[in-house]
Amino acid sequence: MATAKETILWRVRRATRDVPEGERPEDVRVERGYRKEGDGARDDIVARFAEHVAEYEATVHRVAEDGLPARIAQILQKRGLEILVVPPLLPEAWIPEGVEVLRDAAGPRLTNEELDEAGGVLTGCALGIAQTGTIVLDAGPGQGRRALTLLPDYHLCVVREEQVVDLVPEAFAKLEETVRGEGRAVTFISGPSATSDIELNRVEGVHGPRALEVLIVG
Amino acid sequence: MTPKTKPPDAFSPGQTPTFEVSARESLRDAQLRRNLGKATQTIRRKRTVAVEEMPDWEELREAGRALKERTLRHLDKYLLQLEESVTRAGGVVHWARDADEANRIIAGIAREKGAEEVVKVKSIATDETKLNEHLEAQGIHAFETDLAELIIQLAGENSSHILVPAIHKNRAEIRELFLRELDVEELSDEPKDLTNAARLYLRKKFLGAKVGISGANFAVAETGTVSVVESEGNGRMCTTLPPVLVTLMGIEKIIPAWRDFEIFMQLLPRSSTAERMNPYTSFWTGVSGEAGDGPQEFHLVLLDNGRTDVLADEIGRQTLNCIRCSACLNVCPVYERTGGHAYNSVYPGPIGAILTPQLVGIGKPGSDSLPYASSLCGACYQVCPVKINIPEVLVHLRGKVVRHKQDKGTLRQKLDPENAAMQAMARTFSDPKLYERAQRLARVGQLPFARGGRITSLPGRLAGWTAVRDLKPIPEQSFREWWKEERG
């Protein structure tokens, strides 16, 4: 008896009998006439990124490289954060004194319960996209596993100016190697968790972090 | 929470009422009309703004359409490539010919893991297969975690919109429901408080679940990457926290390469929620192994369930381009008035009117009535991000429904006035002499019925036409007559 796989493939082939025998996928023309790279100046791109992130009700700060550790400490203190989750390979200088730090590591991983009870998480990122105000995480150094930026109720994310690309296609081009190579998970974050399910009113904070704060460094 | 049975729809066993019958019922509900009117107007306005911001929107639409065409014409190759790449990344691929086979595969995995509860991300494919009911019968309770899905699950209702399934419910109704079902003592009707009640209720479920179940927005043949596009974070929870993840996807959701996301991740959010980008999108490739990022086990179930029948119809095939954005619902004048329940399908609105009858097959009175649930105004085609010519498919399906009655119908159906009229019309349209004679006759014949430039009721067998619409009288001079006079 034919397996489900054999049957489905047979049905697909029968259904596409109108496709000429010798036609290859690339023979079906795909005109990619859309923009693939922006042509704006660097300063404008970073400014647009900041503006678009802020429009999602995320808090955005811009800071110079040497002022970064102090600014992180100040933001966390103002928030009254007590327990901070930190991914592997986050620059040590970023981690402020005076808060309890929960470090995730390859050996003893933090449990979901620990992450759930932590007040917030501090990470870097892989990319920022100006066109859409999106932060991209790819589980790389200073970002960690996906659960780290999901269970704590607050996410403070550091984005370097040179990490910001202009358009969406630029981001997918840059991520291609990570996905093809190690197959690491990629997460796009555009503002804090939100829903519009009740009368289409946008409410921030459903299941993911209810607050997102972004530090743009450069 | 007490499990409730949802009302049957086109994908349940048995028959459903026709659109005409259900729509009449919906139209009597004034509250529903207010809720819907407000919601669709808001989202329409926002979508226009989000799309106008894009100077290359038309180029993106065309690229999206063409890519879907390429994928569908060579679907067998892409399915095999996807199976290989998911397997290489540590996932397990299953094939399901129909709903029942998909449900049995998923229930089997859940049972094997000893799961009595599973958490689910909104997935219309699982609504189509009636997975929740199947699991429940086996003693496994599926928790819907999308806010709107939770609302309708608690209420024991069907979805009425692809994107916002509880669009028919207002805040007061939701408050009542949560007070009754979520074991909370005090609750206001502020969306913020209602949302927080759901957050607290579901957080415990996420942390304890052994199995997560999701649908898929896209799966990449080349890399095996699967993606879920969402807003609330429940998708991230379900695809990240439980040790086992099962994803059910229709075979048409494949895209060839990773880079193709650059098209669809621009088209989908702006068409769907009218945002530049939705809050969260997860992309995962198999399992992460030692990195411990996400599930240790990943199962991908590829579902046919009628899709290959849609594929076989050269005009209907484009229906499979659909990326489930719901823009066509929000612009549809019929949907705006009747709401989603009148379609009696997990796929409502214009896209549902062409997808449902093709998936379940022509010959069921309920779904056969759906291609007629349209004024053919074409607004749906205009907003569709992958350029599905919905009016063209609607007309094509109307033809199929009529032909089916002619071929398979009983004597009574063959003598059906519409059927007889269609055949007479076909003869008349194909002969210019007959056509002109018919026009002259009709002009005289209509005199007793035309009032103030409108015909609002026709007699006898023709009454069906004017029961739901007014008719413009035939002009005193036809175009053909005018042409002969002027140029002849």
UniProtKB/TrEMBL annotation, chain B:
InterPro entries: 4Fe4S_Fe-S-bd, 4Fe4S_Fe_S_CS, FTHF_cligase-like_sf, Helical_ferredxn, LUD_dom, LutB/LldF, LutB_C, NagB/RpiA_transferase-like
Entry's Gene Ontology molecular function annotations: 4 iron, 4 sulfur cluster binding; metal ion binding
Region Disordered, annotated ranges: 1-26
One BP annotation, GO: lactate metabolic process
Ranges for domain Lactate utilization protein B C-terminal: 418-486
All residue ranges annotated as the LUD domain in the record: 81-303
Protein name as catalogued: Predicted L-lactate dehydrogenase, Iron-sulfur cluster-binding subunit YkgF
UniProt source species: uncultured Rubrobacteraceae bacterium
